[in-house]
From TrEMBL:
GO terms for cellular component: protein-DNA complex. Keywords: DNA-binding, Transcription, Transcription regulation. CDD domains: PBP2_LTTR_aromatics_like. Pfam families: HTH_1 (PF00126), LysR_substrate (PF03466). This is Transcriptional regulator, LysR family. Residues 1-58 form the HTH lysR-type domain. Belongs to the LysR transcriptional regulatory family. GO terms for molecular function: DNA binding; DNA-binding transcription factor activity. It comes from Opitutus terrae (strain DSM 11246 / JCM 15787 / PB90-1).
């Protein structure tokens, strides 16, 4: 028996609904049902009665729920105490270019908090939010912040960068280093995959809409390297963050956009109820002084 079995059981017992519990836990309903069956098999008792119209706790389930809650609370306290003792902050980011960008601020923070160790963890942008929800990260650098995300987490804007255009070296506009977005109203575009980089394609659409056109998106990519390959081997245009220019980009040139361009704001996000919330807020403030 593992703690996840207890968490899963408590979620079902509190909602008395497998679908709602699965949604709360961010797992599929079949996976949740399987975990509950495994738990019941290990205990040798039936914890929940499933009916067509309802799910109810058995007497054994009610007794087990009380103990499960106590165990989960004690485990949570033990984890929090251990983390607090070590003062280790798990810092989620996407790519070393971001850690380079915030390097000076991170070093200043480390000097000001000598008892705190930062553990950088690199994940895809979409995985950063999921890791925060699973409490596998204490704080993360994330891009687009929706209202729903602001309700779920404490967030703070850190810096705003102007996205730049990436074009093939032989593109008709390749020799121009400054372009207006309207100059590309007839261009094909390579966009960022929504599954891996949520919100980035929408930044392009919003900026293009303000410039009076809808971008003709002909493909999507899930990495900077893929963006450069797609652009270099076609007449399509992509938009990238300025630090991406430090990566190998054979056959690709860059151009800046005239204001308002395509602004990209990086945020820090962390759990509001974290026991280290004051320290995390201090870290976010330090990172916001990157400029």
């Amino acid at each position: 028996m593992e703690l996840r079995h207890l968490r899963y059981f408590c979620a079902v017992a509190e909602t008395l609904h497998f679908s709602r519990a699965a949604e709360r836990l961010h797992v599929t309903q079949p996976a949740l049902s399987r975990q509950i069956r495994d738990l019941e098999a290990e205990l040798g008792v039936t914890l929940l009665r499933r009916h067509h119209t309802a799910t109810v706790l058995t007497p054994a389930g009610e007794a087990f729920l009380r103990r499960a809650r106590e165990i989960l609370a004690a485990a949570g306290e033990a984890v929090s105490e251990a983390r607090q003792a070590g003062r280790q902050l798990r810092f989620g980011h996407y790519g070393t270019l971001w850690t380079e960008c915030f390097g000076p601020a991170l070093r200043r923070f480390a000097k000001q908090h000598p008892g705190c160790a930062l553990q950088p963890i690199e994940l895809m942008p979409v995985e950063l939010v999921a890791a925060l929800r699973r409490q596998e990260l204490d704080i993360a650098l994330i891009g687009t912040v929706t209202r729903a995300l602001q309700r779920e987490f404490a967030t703070q804007p850190l810096c705003t960068l102007e996205m730049q255009l990436a074009l093939a070296a032989d593109h008709p506009l390749a020799k121009r280093r400054l372009l207006a977005l309207a100059d590309l109203r007839d261009a094909d575009w390579i966009a960022w995959d929504e599954a891996g980089f949520p919100g980035r394609a929408e930044l392009l659409r919003d900026a293009a809409r303000a410039a009076g056109f809808a971008p003709r998106i002909v493909g999507t990519v899930d990495s900077v390297a893929s963006m450069f390959v797609a652009v270099a081997t076609s007449r399509a245009v992509g938009c990238v963050l300025p630090m991406s220019r430090k990566l190998p980009h054979s056959g690709v040139v860059f151009a800046r956009l005239r204001p308002p361009g395509i602004p990209f704001t990086m945020h820090a996000a962390w759990a509001r109820d974290s026991r280290q919330a004051p320290l995390l807020a201090a870290l976010a403030t330090a990172l916001s002084k990157v400029n």
